[in-house]
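Q: My labmate handed me this sequence with no annotations at all. I'd like to see what the chain might look like in three dimensions before we decide whether it's worth expressing. Could you predict it?
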Amino acid sequence: MTNSTRTKLWVGVGASVLLGTSAAGWAEAEPAADYTQGPDSLLLAQADHGGEGGEGGEGGEVGHHHEGGEGGEGGEGGEAGHHHEVGEGGEGGEGGEGGHHHEGGEGGEGGEGGEGSASTDPYAVFDYLNVSAGGEGGEGGEGGEGGEGGEGGYAIDVSNPGVYYTNLAMMKGHLAVARELYQAGEQTAAQPHFGHPIHEHYEMLEPALEARGVKGIESNLKALVETMRGGGKWESKADAYTTALEAIDDAMHDVEGELRDDVAFQSRAQLALLRQALHEYEEAVDDGRFVNVVEYQDSRGFVLTARSLLEKQAGLYEEATYDELLAAYESTLEAWPSAVAPETPVMTPGELSARLFKLEATLSRY
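A: Here is what I predict for the chain of 366 residues:
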């Protein structure tokens, strides 16, 4: 069986161009889902499953398809079509604008991107670290492993340390908002966020983790998900949460120290998180109301994590610049008064984009 989930096509802040998402799909057999939550409830809409060997389906605007199945067809995405792992002998499918393809599979074809340019790659800021640029990149090199990018199409190379590091940071963003929700008494709403690191990021990161000899993330994240399912007081869950976070931190620390202590590297990781946050917020809000509160919560988690990266690396920035960035983060976070969504959005996506522009402009100096 295969799962169909939604694409997260993220958009640059202010004058930035459209960027693609880094999130991989649900990695396990659990059904893919789209969560929407009102102020007092969480509704789970189950996504349809494609049959083994069948067509991956046709997506509308922002279509997202996974695993076309053995001998199956990966499907055709609409604008910003996003395809993953076609399977043995499958065809990678054809992406729409900004098509995004991963691992065409054994005998598969990586896919052909539609309109767009190389700048639609969400990790273009880390291109200088690719093997072809003499950086620390690994498997896949330029264009990535198994993927054949057309105009605007690309394959993610998680052995690029910037891509690797940023995806791990996104894991922490999901867990940060999950903890906030759980501690606020919203245990049901917290559950999907505890699962997002493993379902949306781990499968894509696994080859890089193996190449680096990093162990423990998968087992600790799975243990955390199981622990949280039981409900109960946070104090009885804190150890599992801390252990999972430490495993992610250890994996991030595996990036060469010279890079981790580089102001440009840290600034670009924040930019990736912030731009993803804007896209998530745009997915959450439509016509002055919330249509997907889980995306609102994800976006808050990414901004909190970006700010945390800044605070941990405060010494890399001049004092005046650091203070300027912190003030811009505080202004931006007004869009998320808490992890529990307000009755109506505090800002429109356009207003949030304007707030984020100050952060992007300052971080882009590096």
